[in-house]
Design goal:
Structural class: alpha/beta
Number of helices: 13
Radius of gyration: 24 Å
Number of strands: 8
Strand order of the largest sheet: 2-3-4-5-6-7
Order of helices and strands: HHHEEHEHEHHHEHHEHHEHE
Largest sheet: 6 strands, parallel
Distance between the termini: 76 Å
Oligomer: single chain
Shape: globular
Helix content: 40-55%
C-alpha cells in the first residue's frame, strides 16, 4: 500500500520540479542579452538584405545622413547615432550610413576616420571618377593588416579610436576590430564603401570601378549626373533620357558583377530591382 501511494506522490514532485526548472530557464533566456543570443549574426542590415536577395529600404533597414550639402547636420548625425545605442541590442536598429562633405579628388581620410569612430557603418563618397579614388576610400576605411590577416590589401591606414562606435554597435573592442572591415572583400566585414555615381567618367569606368577590391557598392545621384552629362535645363534634369540611359548602363554593370547598386531618388522598387538596384535611400513606393 505504501508503494502505491508513494509513486504518484513522487511523480507529482518530479513534475513540479521539472516545471520550476523550465520556468527558470525561460526567465534566464528572456533576460539574456540579445547580443549574446545573436552573437554570430550580421550587424549591417544593408548587407543582410543584399545577401538575402532583398532590397534595403530607407527607414526600414538603414538611414543615410548627407553632410555634402548640409555641413551643419553633424549634431543631427550624433543624435541619430546616440539613438542607436540600445542596451543589450543585437545590432543597431537602423544601419547608419554617412555621405561625407569631401569629394573624391580631395583629402578625406581624416573625415572618414572620425565618422567611422562615431559609429557609422558605411561611407558614401561624392563625385567619384576613377578606380584610384575608390581605392583611396577603401584604404581610409580599413585598419592596417595585422599578423595573419586574410585580406591585407588594399592596405588600410585608419587609426584606432572607435570608443563611440563600440557603444553604437554594442560590441567589444576586439569584436569591433574584427567586424570593422569592408565587405565584400572581407565576407565578415560590416562596413560599406559606397561610390556616388554622378559624373560622366564613373559611368564610362563603371566596370573597372565595380572590380575595385573593397568597394561595397555604388549609389546613383541622378541630379548631379544630369549636370555632368550636360543635359540640365540648365538646372538639374534627373529625368532626361540620357540620364536614364546612364542609369541603365550602371544597373546592367551591377548585375554583371553581382554588386550592390542604389539610386538616390524616389523609385518603384520592383521596377528598379529588375534593372539591378537594391539600395534605396529615399522612402520608396
Amino acid at each position: 500500500m505504501i508503494s502505491k501511494i508513494s509513486r504518484p506522490t513522487l511523480s507529482r514532485r518530479h513534475i513540479a520540479w521539472a516545471m520550476s526548472i523550465a520556468v527558470a530557464i525561460g526567465a534566464l533566456l528572456a533576460s539574456w542579452p540579445a547580443a549574446q543570443q545573436n552573437s554570430d549574426g550580421r550587424l549591417n542590415k544593408i548587407i543582410e538584405q543584399f545577401e538575402s536577395g532583398e532590397a534595403a529600404l530607407a527607414n526600414d533597414h538603414w538611414r543615410i545622413t548627407s553632410l555634402e550639402h548640409n555641413p551643419f547636420l553633424v549634431d543631427d548625425l550624433e543624435a541619430f547615432l546616440n539613438e542607436l545605442e540600445e542596451e543589450d541590442a543585437a545590432r543597431p536598429r537602423l544601419t547608419p550610413i554617412v555621405r561625407i562633405p569631401h569629394e573624391a579628388d580631395q583629402d578625406f581620410h581624416h573625415v572618414v576616420k572620425q565618422i567611422l569612430d562615431a559609429g557609422a557603418m558605411g561611407i558614401v563618397l561624392p563625385q567619384v571618377r576613377t578606380a584610384d579614388e575608390v581605392t583611396k576610400l577603401v584604404r581610409a576605411m580599413r585598419y592596417p593588416p595585422q599578423r595573419g590577416a586574410k585580406f591585407p590589401e588594399p592596405r588600410g591606414r585608419r587609426g584606432w579610436g572607435p570608443t563611440a562606435a563600440t557603444r553604437v554597435w554594442n560590441v567589444t573592442a576586439d569584436e569591433y576590430a574584427r567586424k570593422a572591415d569592408v565587405w565584400p572583400l572581407n565576407p565578415d566585414g560590416e562596413l560599406l564603401a559606397i561610390a556616388m555615381v554622378e559624373t560622366r567618367e564613373i559611368v564610362e569606368n563603371i566596370d573597372e570601378i565595380l572590380q575595385v577590391p573593397g568597394l561595397g557598392g555604388v549609389l546613383i545621384g541622378p541630379s548631379d549626373l544630369s549636370l555632368s552629362l550636360g543635359v540640365g535645363t540648365p538646372a538639374a534634369n534627373p529625368t532626361a533620357p540620357e540620364v536614364e540611359e546612364a542609369i541603365q548602363t550602371v544597373g546592367d554593370a551591377c548585375k554583371r558583377h553581382n554588386a550592390l547598386c542604389g539610386i538616390y531618388t524616389r523609385s518603384d522598387v520592383e521596377a528598379r530591382g529588375e534593372q539591378g538596384f537594391s539600395l534605396f535611400p529615399i522612402p520608396a513606393y
